[in-house]
Each structure stands twice: as C-alpha cells, then as structure tokens.
Amino acid sequence: MRNFKKVYVIIFSLITVFYGCQENDYSFGEIITPSNIQITAEIVGADANNPNGDGSGAVNFKATADNAVSFKFISEGSETVALSGETSFIFSKLGLNTYTVTVVASGTAGVSSSKSIQVDVLATYSPPDDLKSKLFGFDPANPSATTSRTWKIQSAKPGHFGLGPVGGSTPTEWYGAGPDEKVGLGMYDDRFIFSSDGTFTHVTNGDIFGRNPYIVNDLGPNTTGNVNGPEIENYVFADYTESFFLTAPAGVETINLTGNAFIGYYTGGNRQYQIFDRGVANEMLLRTTDGGSEFDWWFIIVIE
Asked: What are phi and psi of 56, to 5 degrees?
C-alpha cells in the first residue's frame, strides 16, 4: 500500500508539471520582421510658392509597412506611438530647418525594422511676451532668466473638464463636469510645470485618469486601474518630463507637447492644446482632439 501511494504521488506530480507547461506554452505564430516601410510627409501649407510650408511648422506623417502591427515616430529626441501609422509633428525652431524623422515598424513578438526621411520645414511663429509670461513666468526685462509656473485642473469650477464635437466652439457642449465631480480618479492631484527652457514636467502623484483604448495603446496595459466604461481611473503612471513649444496655426495659440505627454485627462491624439481663452486671470481654457477624432476635450487649468 505504501508503494502504491508513492507511485500515485509521482504520477500526480508528472501530470501537474505537464499541465503547468501546457498552460505557459504561449505561441506568437510565425514571427515576421516588418518590411517595405513607406513614409509620406505632408508639410502643411506647402505649395509651388511655399514648398516648405506656411510657417506653422506643421507636418503630417503617414507610414505603412508589410507585417507591421504598430508604428513609432522619432524626431528631435521625441517618440510618439501611432498604431494607425499616422501622426503629426510641429517643428518650432525659427527659420528653415532640416529635420530627420525615423519610423520604427513593430511586428509580432516585438520584432521591428526602421526607416528615416528628412523634411525641410519653415517656422515663422514667435510667441508673444504676455503668453510666455502667463504660461511660465517670462520676464521681458530679464529674458534669459530661468522661470517656471505650476498649473493644475481648476476642479472647483463648473465645466473644468468635458467634451464636445470636433471643431465645436462651445466649451463642454456635450458634457461638462461639475465642481470636484472627478475627485479621487487620478486627475485633480496632477501638476503641470511649464519652464522657460522648454521642459514640461507632469507630476502624477502615482496615477492618472484617461480614455480607453488610447491610454492602453500608448502607455501600456492596465494592471491596477479601475475600468469604468470607456475610462480608466487611477491608472498607475509615474512622474515624467517631456518638452513643450508654442505655435499659432491659423492664428490659434497652441501648446504642443512632445512624446505621450498630456494635460488633465489622457486622450491620445496629437498632443496639441489650443488656447481657446486666456483672458481670465491665472486661468486658461484649453481644447484638444482625441486620438480617434471622436471628440474635442476641454480643460480649465489654473496656476497653483
């Protein structure tokens, strides 16, 4: 009987090991490195008389490749993930400059290949002193001084966060949050620091609030955040630093963030925040379009 029990234990152990191996035997299928990368660049405003654009510095990129599942665009040290293969950059260095843009096409199991192109882009916009003073404390009397200002979502004010149609001119036309309506979800404790050297620091205090699927596609799988319909609350995300620059396409003052940086609520998209109104002391009303061109998202930010 004792020997029988030993044999039983051995057989059970072998079965357990066998099934354990089976459960972890993941398969990616055939792994093929992306190839035939094609990149097109549309310089906004370019024509026969203005081959390098209208001075906004904006360029729309589109990449395709065989056997690719996602794309990453790299330029000037900034990286932007674009699953669709389409993204936009705004190059803000004054004058006519040549920029190199590299596209990394990724396939299954993480294999990748890359290709680069160069674009000659004209930028003519210089932001006014009063905008720089409001955003990061610029002092015209001491223009070389290092200055910064810290902003946050104006959670106490109705309509501090909301959405409306793309291109709409009525703030939070379809939905506007009430005072402190989103407390505890990972947005109100965030701080956004703009510095005169062009750095943008986002203090997340450990978590953020954002829209699915953009937040997962761009920042990584959700492991601890609460999924509430199309939103992820308290998505774990550390502080980070990126860059910002100011432009005015079609005369609209715009804050441009690099990489996957964002303000308030993660929406993906081109990281361009139009300054819809900055007439209220210590406040600015911003608008951005999400990654699916589904909504315009509105934010009121206030100096802390």
From this structure: -75, -20
